[in-house]
Write a structure and sequence with these properties.
Bound molecules: zinc ion
CATH superfamily: Histone deacetylase domain
InterPro entries: HDACs, His_deacetylse_dom, His_deacetylse_dom_sf, Ureohydrolase_dom_sf
CATH architecture: 3-Layer(aba) Sandwich
GO molecular function: histone deacetylase activity
Pfam family, one: Hist_deacetyl
Number of strands: 10
Protein name: Histone deacetylase-related protein
Shape: globular
Largest sheet: 8 strands, parallel
CATH topology: Arginase, Chain A
Strand content: 5-15%
């Protein structure tokens, strides 16, 4: 099973920012000392034509010039260094290689920076330059023989970029579990955002109350995911693996821990679908390293004995989801 990573990602760095090179460093260190049998692979750089599958050419040219002139701040929280344009292409290429590896051997995981799920067609935001997972999905559909893709995005933030890129597309089922957007960036990801035109019913948001923990997450995902995945019949899973829902994470107020991430990995393994995972957020370095080990143990099929029960607060959210999605899925 392949971990796709390059130390070149470190050239996109700002020590004063939470999204810095220490993150992937912590993950790789934790994986190497975990005893897990993993194959480490270098990514390749995505071509500009690959990036243009999901981003506007005006925007991509702008980023190249901006980075080439020394970089700086694209908005109040998203930076570029002089190397960031190339590094972001390498991160996109890492996601493409993860998809190729998934089809060869079950799963591939791109441990790359910068992250991607907030990047829209024509805007870089939320620490994200290019939408790595969206590029991997398009690569898989155009070049690898995949037609239906399901996305599971468990980063604590709503993946507004990925959601918007596939918002009218009935062949990409985007499912995101995240902290209630009334209380967290980027302020989107409500249940009512279900997709548009042909894509209606193919965008499913699970907004979680602040303070939700392992039981809440595992219960609602166990209610939603098996039904949606069995009716949608995806050829392949794409996972936006963010670890900032961890209770120690400084950016959000969700309280899951390593047990949830190992359950999540195990659930993905249990679907039997090829899975390309890409790193998104996660900003407490200790928690990030440990959570990645737990996630990969789950992906490798370590059975996880997790007891969970109906959670009243979250059951209300599930009722709302099943009402809104009753024309599309048989909950
Ligand atoms: Zn996040």
């Amino acid at each position: 099973m392949a971990i796709i990573h390059s130390s070149t990602y470190d050239l996109h760095n700002n020590e004063g920012h939470v999204e810095n090179k220490g993150r992937t460093g912590a993950i790789i260190d934790a994986l190497k000392s975990s005893g897990l049998q993993l194959k480490f692979m270098e990514p390749r750089m995505a071509g500009v034509h690959d990036i243009l599958m999901v981003h506007s050419s005006v925007h991509v040219e702008y980023l190249e010039v901006f980075s080439g002139r020394g970089g700086g701040w694209l908005d109040y929280d998203t930076y570029m260094t002089p190397e960031s344009f190339s590094v972001a292409r390498l991160a996109a290429g890492g996601a493409m290689v993860a998809a190729e590896e998934a089809l060869k051997s079950g799963w591939g995981y791109s441990v790359a920076r910068p992250p991607g799920h907030h990047a829209t067609y024509d805007r870089s935001m939320g620490f994200c330059i290019f939408n790595n997972i969206a590029i991997a999905i398009e690569h898989s559909r155009r070049n690898l023989g995949i037609s239906k893709a399901a996305v599971i995005d468990f980063d604590v933030h709503h993946g507004n970029g990925t959601s918007s890129i596939f918002y009218t597309d009935p062949e990409v089922m985007y499912i995101s579990v995240h902290q209630d957007p009334r209380t967290l960036f980027p302020g989107t990801g409500f249940i009512e955002e279900i997709g548009e035109s042909d894509g209606k019913g193919f965008n499913l948001n699970i907004p979680m109350p602040r303070g939700s923990g392992n039981n809440d997450y595992i219960w609602i995902l166990s209610e939603v995911l098996p039904q949606v995945l069995s009716e949608f019949r995806a050829d392949m899973l794409f996972v936006s693996a963010g670890f900032d829902a961890h209770r120690l994470d400084p950016l959000a107020d969700i309280m899951v821990d390593e047990e949830f991430f190992s359950w999540m990995g195990w659930f993905i393994h249990d679907t039997g679908l090829p899975c390309a995972a890409v790193l998104e957020g996660g900003y407490d370095l200790q928690a990030l390293g440990n959570s990645n080990v737990s996630f990969i143990e789950g992906l490798e099929g370590s059975s996880v004995k997790v007891e969970y029960e109906r959670s009243p607060a979250v059951a209300e959210i599930f009722n709302e989801i099943s009402d809104v999605f009753s024309p599309f899925f048989n909950f």
